[in-house]
Amino acid sequence: MNRHLEEALDLAAQGLGRVSPNPAVGAVIVRDDVVVGRGFHTWSGVKHAEIIALEQAGELARGATLYLTLEPCSHQGRTPPCVAAVIAAGIKKVVAATQDPNPQVHGSGFRALQNAGIEVEIDSTYSARATKLLSTSCTPDAPW
Questions:
Q1: Would you tell me how many other CB atoms lie within 10 Å of the CB of residue 136?
Q2: pLDDT, position 143
């Protein structure tokens, strides 16, 4: 069991009913086994989970691990790409429950992280729960 991904999934569920057409996403930042930042996507068009968690963590994000329910976005939509903020914050590792099925992202967020020297891991143990959150929270085929 990965308690940090469990927490990220619980956080993501708090966004259900508010984020459509976007996905409900949760994020937890851990440094030296201490949670230093948490966030979930609260409203469509507002800061994404990663950004809220990074802001909460501040400088403690540098060298930390980011646990996410979904691959970070890598395109400019109503908000800037989260992957750029993750890289700029100095995160050393990202553990995600699933890859983003959105064709605008689908793997490009992970590739950008890896190209920046950030380790990426998908914990498939949580993929089904994360996918269920996606199907519950966002408009099908929406270009979130």
A1: 14
A2: 47
C-alpha Rg value of the chain to the nearest Å:
13
Q: Is 71 labeled as catalytic in the residue annotation?
A: no
DSSP string, 97-124: S----STTTTTHHHHHHHHTT-EEEE-G
CA angle in degrees (0–180, nearest 5) for 86-62-25: 35
> What is the rounded distance in angstroms from the CA atom of residue 100 to the CA atom of residue 98?
6
68: helix, strand or coil: strand
DSSP state of 71: P
- Catalytic residue chosen out of the listed positions 6, 7, 50, 119: 50
Give the Cα-Cα-Cα angle 11, 22, 104 (nearest 5 degrees). Answer: 120
User: DSSP assignment, residue 56?
Assistant: H
Q: Give me the helices (H) in the chain, please.
A: 3-13, 49-57, 82-89, 108-115, 127-137
Which of the two residues, 139 and 18, has the higher pLDDT score? 18
The predicted-structure confidence for 46-97, as pLDDT tens digits, reads as follows: 788 999 999 999 999 999 999 999 999 887 777 778 999 999 999 999 999 9
